[in-house]
From TrEMBL:
GO-annotated molecular function: metal ion binding; trehalose-phosphatase activity
Listed name of the protein: Trehalose 6-phosphate phosphatase
Lineage: Bacteria, Pseudomonadati, Pseudomonadota, Alphaproteobacteria, Acetobacterales
InterPro entries to which the protein is assigned, alphabetical: HAD-like_sf, HAD-SF_hydro_IIB, HAD_sf, OTSB-like, Trehalose_PPase
EC number: 3.1.3.12
GO process annotations (BP): trehalose biosynthetic process
NCBIfam families the record matches: HAD-SF-IIB, T6PP
Length: 240
């Protein structure tokens, strides 16, 4: 089992969702929350005094659907939206809007390549090509033509996907914002992710004195990380 560099009683858990807590699925809607995961997360949340958060590229509403009532805080769309506690409204950053012409061309391109999925977000979009690997070059050429950098956006690499998101928004900033609030404040963040987009969260957690881990570097896959969570929930060293 990957060892924490400090007592678990001192930590806050900040976790990515896709590829970390759940296995990657062909489409965002088809992921499956494995049996036992909810119980382990609820146990850990209780032991941590509530200091459990999800830091995800998904909108907050999707986390509410898959993990209803579990995380205390949720940072959605890489930090575009942040809900600091279950009973407060999410705060959205003031960001540039996606051009309608980009959305239209993305939909037209997806129609030419069955298996491509266009995931629209409040301040961005994701072009998933896991179901149509042959579409990758066409999608890259399309986003390159848009010249998104001139409008305050960047194209972020992801697993079998290209994500268009606003500049200055990343999971590292989301980790820092979550850790400013109770019940996270004063604890050491443990952030775990699985993708290029998670590296900012990994680095931020380390800079704050905590731990940042990445699948598959520190855990072979999501199943292995879920097993680690299960063992952590049963660990007897919480007060050490």
């Amino acid at each position: 089992m990957t060892e924490l560099p400090f007592s678990p009683s001192r930590m806050a858990l900040l976790l990515d969702f896709d590829g970390t807590l759940v296995d990657i699925a062909p489409t965002p809607d088809s992921v499956v929350v494995p049996a036992g995961l909810v119980d382990d997360l609820l146990c850990l949340k209780k032991r941590l005094g509530g200091a459990l958060a999800i830091i995800t590229g998904r909108p907050i509403a999707q986390i509410d659907h898959f993990l209803p009532g579990i995380p205390h805080a949720v940072a959605g769309e890489h930090g575009v939206a942040l809900r600091r506690a279950p009973d407060v409204a999410a705060v959205h950053a003031s960001l540039p809007e996606i051009h309608a012409a980009w959305l239209e061309e993305a939909d037209e391109t997806a129609a030419r390549y069955p298996g491509v999925h266009v995931e629209r977000k409040r301040a961005g979009l994701v072009l998933h090509y896991r179901g149509a690997p042959g579409a990758e070059q066409a999608l890259r050429e399309m986003t390159s033509r848009w010249g998104v950098e001139r409008y305050g956006f960047g194209v972020q690499e992801a697993k079998m996907a290209l994500e268009l998101r606003p500049d200055g928004v990343d999971k590292g900033q989301a980790v820092r914002r979550v850790m400013e609030e109770m019940p996270f404040r004063g604890r050491l963040p443990v952030f775990v992710g699985d993708d290029v987009t998670d590296m900012d969260g990994v680095l931020a957690a380390r800079e704050l004195g905590g731990a940042g881990w990445l699948i598959p570097d520190d855990f072979p896959d999501a199943a292995s990380f879920r097993e680690w969570l299960h063992k952590l929930a049963e660990d007897k060293r919480w007060n050490v």
